[in-house]
Amino acid sequence: MPDSEGEDGPKLSYNYFERLDRIVRLHQEWRTKECLNLIPSENHGSPLMRGMFLADLGNRYNAPDRFYRGTKYSDELLSMTEELARKAFGARYADVRALSGHTADMAVLLALTEAGDRILSVHPDNGGYPGITHLGLGSLLRLENLYFHYDTRTVNIEPIESAALIRETQPKVVFFGSSFIPFPHPAKRLSAVAHGACVYDASHVLGLIAGKEFQDPLREGCSLMIGSTHKSFFGPQGGLIVSNNEDVFTRVVGKIHPGIVDNIHLDRVAALGVALIEMIQFGRQYAQAVIKNSQALAKALAAQGVKLKGSTVGYTRSHQILLDYEPAKLESFSGRLEQANIIGDNGGRLGTSELTRMGYGPAEMEEVAELVAMVLMGKKPPDFVQKRVRTLVRQFQQPRFVLQSVPKPFG
Questions:
Q1: C-alpha–C-alpha distance, residues 337 and 329, integer Å
Q2: Where do the domains of the chain lie, and which CATH numbers do they carry?
Q3: Is the pTM of this model over 0.85?
Q4: Are 274 and 286 in contact (CB under 8 A)?
Q5: Per residue, what are the HEC states of 149-171?
Q6: Rounded to a whole number, what is the distance in angstroms from the first to the last CA of the chain?
Q7: How far is residue 355 from each of residues 206, 214, 361, measured CA to CA in Å?
Q8: Residue 65 half-sphere exposure toward CB, CA atoms < 13 A
Q9: Average pLDDT for consecutive 10-residue bins of the chain (411 residues)?
């Protein structure tokens, strides 16, 4: 039936709200109660953190030029959240206005480079973040993208030849960090030979760095660390920037408003504040558990006959395990896993952050490995595995490493 016009406005012939509500509820039920989430770029937010998205803050503005009034409490919120970020990362300076790790990368490049400048990062073929390469901002900002020498055996930047490349080409910005990052990067060794700014994009390993269990970029020669707050770090989707270098920090954050971000989503800032408190309090335990689970999962997968990268160096020291198959096969694998309610990605990455947050331990990693292998090795059909996945997932419905206060409703 066509829509019609009534006295109070258009009359919809279909109940769109009913459909919208149904879609959201079905997603909630499926992804949280029926699926094993092994996507390394996702995590589970605590009840207190999620509750912040119901506050009035989500409808308000705040700007550094004081254009908006009524911000006395949101000013305090922003200041406190940045204080927490400084504490969490041992930094003198912090900014939490970036809406993602990508917008933080954009601020870095706009502040520290000009067209024609060289920047150095991990190549996308080796798992580097495409957003700063010739596939993304590098091309858009007319930069010359250079790439580290990479050792596929150790699944890491090759330090000797990369140091020579840095000396020879003198890139304006050297980016450490990667979308595929099972091991700490040789930031200390390579930043010592860099002439330009060294920036660590910690989007994937931010939670492990906050938990003091991966590496410490700000004390390994990096003048800036940026990152997404929703991957191994269990905050809301968003970004942050921390630094101990006043000059570089000031230049970079100066590009955020009004050039990149106008509305900073104050409900997100409040939610990030909760996650930072939880990370300061529980981060070491959480990060240790994530790495322990990753290593247990990798060992169990290998024992099942699944091919993994990094076999000669212990597979992983992060939240990621990397399957070692051709791209076409990886895409096929991810589709088959999804049929069994095991959620991964087309790149062959398996992550343990969310499972760790939900209370899974090394013993459960044995079962997860068995379920994954059943699908990948064709031992059992997806519908058989799906039933076991549901049974397992329903045993782990309460997140760990969270503040225990019961949130009061807003309004």
A1: 12
A2: 50-276 (3.40.640.10)
A3: yes
A4: no
A5: CEECCCCEECHHHHHHHHHHHCC
A6: 39
A7: 17, 19, 8
A8: 8
A9: 63 84 97 98 96 96 94 98 98 98 98 98 98 98 98 98 98 98 98 97 98 98 98 98 98 96 97 98 98 98 98 98 97 97 97 98 98 96 96 97 81 74
